[in-house]
Amino acid sequence: MVLRVLGAAFPQVLRSIAWLLLPTSFIALIAWSTAGSATGNTGDPLRAALWIWIGSHQIPFDLNLGSSAVAGHLSYLPLGALVFPILAIRNGISRTVDRLDGDTSLIAPARVAFSFLYSTFALLASIFSKTDEVIPVWYFAFIYVFPFALITSATVARRTSLGQGFLFGSRIIALLLGISAIALGIALLINVEMVKNLTLVLQPGIFGGFLLLLLNILYLPNAIVSTLAYFSGVGFAVGSQTIVSPISFDLDKIPAMPILGALPKNESLISLLGVCVVVFAGALLVSWTVELKQKVLVQSFIVAVLISAFVGYSASGALITEAMSAVGTSPWKFTAAITLQLGLGALLAIYGPRMFKRT
């Protein structure tokens, strides 16, 4: 059984890796050839392609920058890039299951084997692609990539039942992120002139403009999480010692990144109305589960809190330099705010009607 599962999974793991690695190698090769370097060699674009592949799986990097070897860290990675590994893993798992000849008892072991082999490649890529300047944090291959691959694989073929708690909890966070995405889109439209100016400052050219557009698209989910953090009252940072929130604004300058054109100019107390939206979401969660057991509500709430913690952590981090060592929201503050506001909404929905009945 083990050999059969490995025989079905291993080729598809390689195929899934190549599905993403080959296009990134092509892009890295073009970028390397157009940039030019007096000291570079043909191995550089291949190593860069591996770094792109590693980064798309949210594996952070330790950096030693310049001749003075200034330490840096890159953990603020684009959440949107996870789309490509998800597609690759789903395709690989689907093909793996097809090669099991309908034996459903082997699907679960095949998922585990695929995820283990996939994360093992991430581990090896992290170890062997490192240089003195760029060092992938290798242990994230199992901390992040293995559970990510396992969860993704559970959505393919004979799907694993995740329960009503997961369903409702994930829906409520998805709803909040969807509303935040609309708010971000409106902010971008209102500040389209600033977005244009930030683009012109970079003068990226045709190919560079395409890469810049792609980078901004991939960072959109990070921006959406920051938008939710902003309207929850917590706010977010665009560098160390900075804060952008409805009640506090401390930001002198911003990187030339077009998506940052949506940033507010100062405090905006009216934006605290966003807290009401999160509170309402808590009440909505109760209405979704009111006809079910109370255990489902508790499970849904816990799932919502865990997902908010995950997205808060994943959408924040350091962006290479000391000046940009804090970008995005504070994971613990974001999680605490969402927890308290959802909890308040749930309590109001449960006990509010009872209080009115008594009066």
TrEMBL record:
<feature type="transmembrane region" description="Helical">
    <location>
        <begin position="332"/>
        <end position="351"/>
    </location>
</feature>
<feature type="transmembrane region" description="Helical">
    <location>
        <begin position="135"/>
        <end position="156"/>
    </location>
</feature>
<keyword id="KW-0472">Membrane</keyword>
<feature type="transmembrane region" description="Helical">
    <location>
        <begin position="228"/>
        <end position="249"/>
    </location>
</feature>
<feature type="transmembrane region" description="Helical">
    <location>
        <begin position="168"/>
        <end position="190"/>
    </location>
</feature>
<feature type="transmembrane region" description="Helical">
    <location>
        <begin position="110"/>
        <end position="129"/>
    </location>
</feature>
<feature type="transmembrane region" description="Helical">
    <location>
        <begin position="202"/>
        <end position="221"/>
    </location>
</feature>
<feature type="transmembrane region" description="Helical">
    <location>
        <begin position="70"/>
        <end position="89"/>
    </location>
</feature>
<feature type="transmembrane region" description="Helical">
    <location>
        <begin position="297"/>
        <end position="320"/>
    </location>
</feature>
<keyword id="KW-1133">Transmembrane helix</keyword>
<dbReference type="Pfam" id="PF19877">
    <property type="entry name" value="DUF6350"/>
</dbReference>
<feature type="transmembrane region" description="Helical">
    <location>
        <begin position="12"/>
        <end position="32"/>
    </location>
</feature>
<feature type="transmembrane region" description="Helical">
    <location>
        <begin position="269"/>
        <end position="290"/>
    </location>
</feature>
<protein>
    <submittedName>
        <fullName>Unannotated protein</fullName>
    </submittedName>
</protein>
<keyword id="KW-0812">Transmembrane</keyword>
<dbReference type="InterPro" id="IPR045931">
    <property type="entry name" value="DUF6350"/>
</dbReference>
